[in-house]
Design a protein that fits this description.
alpha+beta, five-stranded mixed beta sheet, two-stranded antiparallel sheet
Length: about 250
């Protein structure tokens, strides 16, 4: 009887293989690291959002101050019987209005330098003596003018694409901007809008980051004689602040 009982005794506990223990330990460590990283990222994003909100508020105050200052100067000039002469614009938005056929070599080269490779492409440029001369060369093939803040915002928010590793990436997240322009202090869309609109010190880098805007044909179509100058009833050439209405129809 005792022999039978000894034969029915419970077997010894079977140890798990060493590899399985290592896998479990590694999985636990990975899960803990991921949880810690998630908490750290959440905290960093919260702090980053606060910085972005503060910057946005600061930019709004700056834009309002510029607008009020111009209104005040206009009123002062009117009260004293003088004329108010606004400062020369520093920013222009250029839209290509002609395709690739029958273009002389010199205007073709200027269009390439301005990155206007397709019809209805649009780009921001800094207005200097050199760029003004280039715009005169491409007058029959492009329309340009001075964009306002609303136009700059609508273009970047709605049609904005960034150049990341020579690829066209939609600006759907602030990380796209921060990874490329973070070293220049541009970490969000509002920073990018501010840098473009005010033609700041990093305008060249910010503008090169923006892929040329691909606009639609204007609502209601172009003018009957599209290739006449704007002041002659056409669509090409400098239209100053009237470019904003054209962009609304094309955006």
């Amino acid at each position: 009887m005792s022999a039978g009982l000894s034969w029915m005794a419970a077997p010894e506990r079977v140890l798990a293989p060493e590899t399985l223990l290592k896998q479990r330990k590694h999985a636990q460590k990975t899960a803990a690291d991921k949880a810690a990283e998630k908490v750290a990222n959440k905290k960093a994003n919260r702090q980053k959002r606060q910085v972005i909100f503060k910057r946005a508020e600061q930019y709004v105050k700056e834009y309002r101050q510029i607008e009020r200052s111009e209104v005040r100067l206009r009123r002062q000039a009117k009260q004293t019987g003088n004329f108010f002469v606004p400062a020369q614009p520093k920013l222009a938005f250029v839209i290509r209005t002609k395709g690739i056929n029958k273009i002389a070599p010199k205007p073709r080269k200027v269009l390439q330098l301005l990155r206007l490779l397709q019809i209805n492409n649009g780009v921001f440029i800094r207005l200097t003596y050199a760029t003004t001369q280039m715009l005169q060369i491409i007058t029959p093939y492009a329309a340009w003018g001075t964009p306002n803040l609303k136009t700059v915002k609508e273009l970047i928010y709605k049609r904005g694409y960034g150049k990341v590793n020579k690829q066209r990436i939609p600006i759907s997240d602030n990380r796209v901007i921060e990874e490329t322009l973070g070293k220049y202090g541009i970490i969000c869309v509002e920073d990018l809008v501010h840098e473009i609109y005010t033609v700041g010190p990093n305008f060249k880098v910010a503008n090169n980051f923006l892929w040329p805007f691909k606009l639609s044909n204007p609502t209601g179509g172009w003018a009957t004689r599209k290739f006449r100058h704007f002041i002659e009833g056409g669509d090409v050439g400098n239209r100053e602040d009237k470019i904003n209405a054209l962009v609304r129809r094309m955006n």
